[in-house]
Amino acid sequence: MSVEFKIDGKTIVANDGETILLAAARNGISIPSLCYNQKISHTTSCFVCVVKDVKTGRFLPSCSSIPAPGQEVESSTAEVRDMRQTSLNLLLSEHVGDCEAPCTLACPAHAKVEEYVREGKKGNFLESLKIIKQRIPMPMSVGRVCPRFCEKDCRKNVTGEPLAINDFKRLAADLYYETYMEDIPASIGKKVAVVGAGPAGLSCAYYLRLKGVDVTVFEAMPKAGGMIRYGIPEYRMPKTLLDKEIKHFTDMGIEIKYGMKLGDNLSLDELKKEFDAVAITIGCWKPSSMRCEGEEFVTQGIDFLREVSLHDTKYINPGKTIVVGGGNTAMDCVRTSVRLGSKDVTCFYRRTEAEMPAEKLEIHEAKEEGVKFQFLVAPVKVEKRGEKLVLTCQRMELGEADASGRRKPVVIPGSDFETEADTIIGAIGQKTNAPACLEADKFGNLAANLGDNVFAAGDCNTGAATVVEALAGGRTMANSIFEAVTGEKVDDNENPIYVSRGHWRHLAKDDLVYVNSACSEAPRTKQSLISIEERTSTFKEVAATFTEEQIKEEGKRCIECSCSAKGDCMLRNHAKDYDCDVDAIKGEKLKVAYDNRHSVIIQDRGKCIKCGTCVKICKEVVNNNLLSAKKRGLYTYIGTAFDKGFPESCKDCLECVKACPVGALTIKKM
């Protein structure tokens, strides 16, 4: 007997015995569900399919509730959505597991690391490049200069050295960057001006062009590339390769006009009149002060690197050189000084080597090239005495941690000393030098949205950062601009990423579960370097690109540790739809607990939401009784009798694995 009732004011008819959930679906009304599975009896454990009975005010699980004649149900009100969000947040509060591999989480651009590594391992380097360029439009540069955020968070660190992830980008780009061209859509009739042809500006232009927007880039310098060209030395990033990379942007139809400086011969007001939106990506070109007397005798690091890149001969053989600073710019300055002919180069840094923000690889290679280091020293005064510069410093000791989390250097009284040098280079940071037409904050940075369809991204928005961070910022800004000029919402096809708070860092080697059972335990492939003699006397690129065979072998080391269900995880999809937050409800988390004993099946109890679907599938569909709930409350888990594990015969069934809505049961990758 059919039943007539209302959902959200719409009268519908339910068939005899049909639930509210099924009747709604049959009539085109979508109600989310998580634990519902049409093959088994109702579990009603998740409450995600909740609806409200208007008359009684009660909330009902629609997957098991049979409508009554004349009943009125609400399925999409703010109150119902709030109830669903609460239910999902409760499930997330106990959920322990990374949706994405930590390498992807660590990448500022959220490049699909596991996916492009997998293609590289198979030798599909063009496909790998296509995946990379979804998030990183300058892979030739990033493959050489990135500080490898992804590798620092690679799970292989638990057992040894991380995967050489960055080299997958480098090889794929070196092989196919010049021949591959994206599908470029026709113009949609919108025009955007980008001020600055550094990585943020080029990234913004790239993603707007892929959406059919016409883009003109205005650059103050003679060539494009920003800090990649004028701040990163040739031995790290050959400019012939950068030229190839820039050419791809112009081949896409992006126009670049050179010698155009905002606030000088380029007017913001005129740009706003001519274009639908303006993107500001002017970088950080103003050096930070050393805050010491006599600083006028100091060569600023970014000025030094820029002039060297422009082939200014005044820096040839800088003599005895001191570089003050501990970041990557300081390392670029000391290593460049060596190549310019200096036989005596020293880096002064006010903290210890352990606190240096420069990449460990850069510090190591600088030492190999003969650079000396003095730690726990800070500059006080610079004087010129005859033909020499004299640097007065104070020795320091580490005190309490400061705002950066590092221990603050404290002066040791009476520890002043003097050092002579021919050249002193300051490399302690840089700032945005915004023109008067732009309103900057007290740190000199620009807001992401400056109003009146003017946006900012890259170093001028965040402060000095890395190339990959600038590319990510440019992409985010491109999406904001597209929405502003078209009124269309950008669907980024990106689910929110839920993280298990880095629990993997505390795993013992025996706790590391390999979903990829064929994962190699071979040592990390070593990169080939040119000789020390060439490194100290030329600007040749120091490191070689891996060969195809080397990359294929290195790819076999990948654990492939993202969740196997990340593409269709119902919990993740619903959490996105309902703007959930993994930290909304805090409490005790379950410990990492894997059952890896079976030859095919892995059970990850941290991901289990205790919906009971696998238990009922085994009992009601397979006609077996292998699984049941163990213990009570928070510590409840699904297991086999006497915790003996899945019998080997389960590999011929796998119905429970197929039915799991969250990837708590998964199949090993062979």
Defining key terms:
Ubiquitin-like (UB roll); Fumarate Reductase Iron-sulfur Protein, Chain B, domain 2; 6-stranded mixed beta sheet; 29% helix
Question: How would you concisely characterize the structure shown here?
Answer:
The chain is α/β, with parallel strands linked by helices and 670 residues long.
Structure description:
This protein is α/β, with parallel strands linked by helices and 670 residues long. The chain has 5 domains: 3-76, Ubiquitin-like (UB roll) (Roll), CATH 3.10.20.740; 102-180 and 513-555, Orthogonal Bundle (Fumarate Reductase Iron-sulfur Protein, Chain B, domain 2); 191-285 and 432-486, FAD/NAD(P)-binding domain (3-Layer(bba) Sandwich); 292-431, FAD/NAD(P)-binding domain (3-Layer(bba) Sandwich); 570-667, Alpha-Beta Plaits, CATH 3.30.70. The chain is 29% helix and 18% strand. It is built from 22 helices and 27 strands. Helix 6 runs antiparallel to helix 8 (166-176) and helix 13 (301-309) crosses helix 14. The longest helix is centred in the C-terminal third of the chain and has 20 residues, at 467-486. It starts with a strand and ends with a strand. The mean pLDDT is 93.
